[in-house]
Every structure is written in structure tokens, then in C-alpha cells.
Design a protein that fits this description.
α2 crosses α3. Helices cover 30% and strands 29% of the residues. The protein is built from seven helices and twelve strands. By secondary structure, it is of the alpha+beta class. The strands form two sheets. Strands 1-2-3-4-5-12-6-11 form an eight-stranded mixed β-sheet.
Length: 302
């Protein structure tokens, strides 16, 4: 077997990235994603592409924030691992998968080849997630009318709410941040993401009970690919009343009022309450995502 050649691409040869099968349908899932040619890398053997990766970030990001397209040919897990190891950026790896991939032998084999390459490169599993997409034919979710929503211009109000929300959380990314730097870090990472989104700051909302107690927050957002549920969070003392649904319904309405023709969302597979709320609000599962982190940044027990 000849040696693997790793190449970063340029605008002139970016088409080389497309010279590889797409069994997991990544091209369709990324049809709204804009990739920079010089953040794409391929592994070649005898001139054939045997692995490829696309690192991605927002239009103003100086470096990628993740890898969200990664493919490996059958039997080429080590080439895929070499591709990941050789990159100048060690960031989170997202592998998007069609729904039901576990039950389809071909899809499962393709997914497991990518998982194997990631692990061989020193990446560790962080979390598996459901991906959702609301469209108008689903009908707008009913607003229960139990909470009072309003914009809140003070970031410190959101920071305090996020600290309290993440003091008891099921979210794997938040739990990882808490392990690294406590709830302050988890709250700051959420705020950084909200500000990173190109949608207006004025869309962020707090929700109060009729008695005036802060019950939760929601952040309707646009990421660079389109409208999305940026964040839904209920304060611990107000859980058990189903308010996450109220927040999700309001978030969807706000985005549609701002012109959204669809709304994306995601939650961890293990977050059963939030998954139930997405289903109730008319958000069908359209795919899944498996997130890996470089081992020195991931939970050692993963």
C-alpha cells in the first residue's frame, strides 16, 4: 500500500473535495453551509481521495470552530486519522448522520468507519444529538400563555440565569464546561455563542410568571446557516411545570415573525424532556449528530 498524502486545498483545486462518495448525505445537509477552500483538507492514495475533512467557522472567525464534514473510504480509517492529526486546528468534530442510521447496515458501517478514524486520531466521544427542523406545514406550536415574555438588554441578567440553569443540567457541552471552569465558564460560553450569532441582540428574551418570577430564557437566533433555536432554559426552581415547551413555542413564533421559513434545533439524545418538547412543538427529527472532542479537551472517561 502506498503512503498517504495529506493536502490542504485552495480555491483552484477545491473541486478535489467532491471526488469522494457521500453515503451519509453530507452534501445535502450542508447545502446552506459556506466552507472556505483553504479550510478543506484531503488524504490521497495513488491520487485518489480516501478521506476528506472540512473545517468550518463563521465569516469573521480567524480560525475554524469545528470540523463538520468528515468522510473516510472503506478500510481507510488510518488515512482519516492522519488527516485529523495533521491539521493545524484541534477543534470539535461533528459527524452528521441520517435518521435511522443504526438500522441500515451500510450507513452504520460508514458511520463507524468515521468514528474509528476519529478515535485513532485521539478524539473521544462527547455526545450524540437529535437534529430537528420545523417547517410551516407543521403548523405553529400553540402558545400556552402562561409566561410573560420580553426582551432584556442586560447581559448580566442572562449570565445569572445561565449560571442557575446550568447548576442542574443534562447538556453534555455545558457539563464539560462546568468540569473545566464551573458554571461561570458554562454561562460565558453560552453568551459567547449568542453574541457570535449574526442575529440581533434584541431577539433574546426573558420569561416571567404572572407573579413576576423569572422562570426562564430563550434565544431565537440565526447562525450562519439559518434560523435556529439558539437556547431554551428553565430555572431550576421552576422546573416540573412544562415551561420548556412554552419557551420553545415562543422562540419559534418570534423567528417566524422575523421571516423564518424554517427553524432548526438540536438536543442531546439523553435529554428526554427536551426531546419530548420538540416533538410536542411539531419539530420532527431530521437527522442525528455525533460530537467528538480532541482527547486532551474531552472527558477522560468518554
Amino acid at each position: 500500500m502506498t503512503d498517504t498524502v495529506i493536502r490542504a486545498l485552495t480555491a483552484s483545486d477545491a473541486s478535489l473535495f467532491d471526488a469522494h462518495p457521500d453515503p451519509l448525505g453530507a452534501r445535502e445537509s450542508h447545502r446552506r453551509t459556506r466552507f472556505r477552500p483553504d479550510w478543506k483538507r484531503v488524504a490521497l492514495r495513488d491520487g485518489e481521495v480516501v478521506a476528506r475533512g472540512a473545517w468550518w467557522g463563521g465569516p469573521d472567525d480567524p480560525e475554524p470552530v469545528n470540523i463538520n464534514w468528515f468522510d473516510v473510504a472503506e478500510g481507510e480509517e488510518e488515512a482519516g486519522a492522519a488527516l485529523l492529526r495533521s491539521a493545524p486546528w484541534q477543534v470539535e468534530l461533528e459527524i452528521n448522520l441520517p435518521g435511522g442510521w443504526r438500522e441500515d447496515p451500510a450507513l452504520r458501517a460508514a458511520a463507524e468507519a468515521r468514528f474509528g478514524a476519529a478515535r485513532a486520531a485521539g478524539y473521544a466521544l462527547l455526545v450524540e444529538r437529535f437534529l430537528y427542523r420545523w417547517t410551516p406545514e407543521q403548523g405553529l406550536p400553540e402558545r400556552p400563555g402562561r409566561l410573560r415574555f420580553r426582551p432584556e438588554p442586560d447581559d448580566e441578567v442572562f449570565r445569572d440565569a445561565l449560571r442557575r440553569i446550568h447548576s442542574v443540567t443534562l447538556d453534555a457541552h455545558a457539563l464539560r464546561a462546568i468540569e473545566e471552569g464551573g458554571v461561570d465558564l458554562a454561562a460565558q460560553q453560552e453568551l459567547d455563542f449568542f453574541h457570535w450569532c449574526p442575529s440581533p441582540r434584541e431577539w433574546w428574551q426573558v420569561a416571567h410568571t404572572p407573579d413576576g418570577d423569572l422562570a426562564g430564557i430563550h434565544v431565537p437566533a440565526h447562525n450562519p446557516s439559518g434560523p435556529t433555536v439558539g437556547f431554551i432554559g428553565v430555572l431550576p426552581e421552576h422546573r416540573g411545570h412544562g415551561y420548556a415547551y412554552d419557551l420553545l413555542a415562543e422562540c419559534t413564533h418570534v423567528l417566524v415573525e422575523q421571516g423564518a421559513q424554517y427553524v432548526s434545533g438540536a438536543t442531546d439524545r439523553g435529554n428526554f424532556p427536551m426531546a419530548a418538547n420538540f416533538a410536542k412543538a411539531g419539530f420532527p427529527v431530521v437527522g442525528e449528530r455525533v460530537n467528538f472532542h480532541p482527547a486532551d479537551q474531552a472527558d477522560p472517561a468518554a
